């Protein structure tokens, strides 16, 4: 079995609450008491200093120290020494390019998949935890060398999944249609549409849907299915 431990959150802020407010109890039970400091990766946003301040304030209020990787003169060494990693949201293309530019893809994979340190992602940070960023909602504002991501799980996620608004007159594609277009390509993996307020907890070879909202699962060539919090998604961890 894999020692991996992941908390993959759809969004950082839920309507009516503060930064990571809706998942702070999940974070505390996930990180536990062994972890003292978290390595934060703010690459998805342009103003990394401000982003790190926001994250530091939150994590310190939960009892954890926070080091931001952008303040380190050696990002690779920072990952090697980290007790836990949290990658925040923003633009997924910008984030993935920075991970490649700083030679962090293999380093993070090793720390999480071999050494078993906890990995938490929200939004773009959840996207890069999967096979690829093909199912992000973001604009390709920069050009990473590849769309292949960390591959901590063998499927893709669509964070902030939105159901079609039946009252809307907007004629553009729904999120479901876009994911279906992705699955028109050969050999495309499952896509888990995580609604705002949902998160996936992965512990070794077990994956469980948590949070207050459900998720929609898309498998190539099949009708999408609806899932409530508490759903066991462990079958998605079997590399198809």
Written description of the protein model:
Keywords: Cytoplasm, Dipeptidase, Hydrolase, Protease, Serine protease. Its EC number is 3.4.13.21. The protein is 26% helix and 21% strand. The model has no long low-confidence stretch (mean pLDDT 94). Strand 2, helix 2 and strand 3 form a beta-alpha-beta unit. It has a 7-stranded mixed β-sheet with strand order 3-2-4-5-1-8-9, with helices on both faces. Strands 6-7-10-11 form a 4-stranded mixed β-sheet. The chain is an alpha/beta fold and 240 residues long. It contains 7 helices and 11 strands.
Write a brief structural summary:
The chain is built from 7 helices and 11 strands.
CATH fold-level topology: Rossmann fold
Structural class by SSE content? alpha/beta
Distance between the termini: 17 Å
The CATH architecture would be 3-Layer(aba) Sandwich
Helix fraction? Answer: 25-40%
Mean pLDDT metric: 94
Whole-number tally of structural domains: 1
Poorly predicted segments: none
């Amino acid at each position: 079995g894999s020692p991996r431990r992941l908390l993959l959150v759809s969004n950082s802020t839920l309507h009516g609450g503060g930064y990571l407010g809706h998942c702070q109890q999940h974070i505390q039970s996930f990180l536990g008491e062994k972890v003292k400091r978290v390595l934060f990766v703010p690459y998805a946003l342009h103003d990394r200093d401000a982003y790190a301040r926001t994250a530091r304030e939150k994590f310190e209020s939960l009892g954890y120290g926070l080091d931001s990787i952008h303040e380190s003169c050696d990002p690779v060494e920072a990952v090697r020494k980290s007790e836990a990693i949290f990658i925040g949201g923003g633009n997924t293309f910008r984030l993935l390019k920075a991970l490649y530019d700083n030679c962090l893809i293999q380093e993070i994979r090793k720390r999480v998949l071999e050494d078993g340190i906890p990995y938490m992602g929200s939004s773009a940070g959840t996207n890069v935890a999967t096979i690829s960023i093909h199912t992000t909602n973001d604009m390709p504002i920069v050009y990473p060398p590849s769309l292949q991501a960390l591959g901590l799980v063998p499927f893709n996620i669509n964070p902030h999944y939105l159901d079609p608004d039946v009252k809307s007159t907007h004629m553009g594609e729904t999120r479901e249609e876009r994911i279906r277009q992705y699955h028109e390509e050969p050999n495309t993996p499952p896509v888990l549409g995580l609604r705002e307020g949902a998160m996936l907890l992965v512990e070794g070879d077990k994956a469980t849907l948590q949070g207050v909202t459900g998720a929609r699962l898309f498998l190539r060539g099949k009708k999408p299915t609806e899932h409530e919090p508490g759903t066991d998604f462990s079958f998605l961890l079997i590399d198809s």
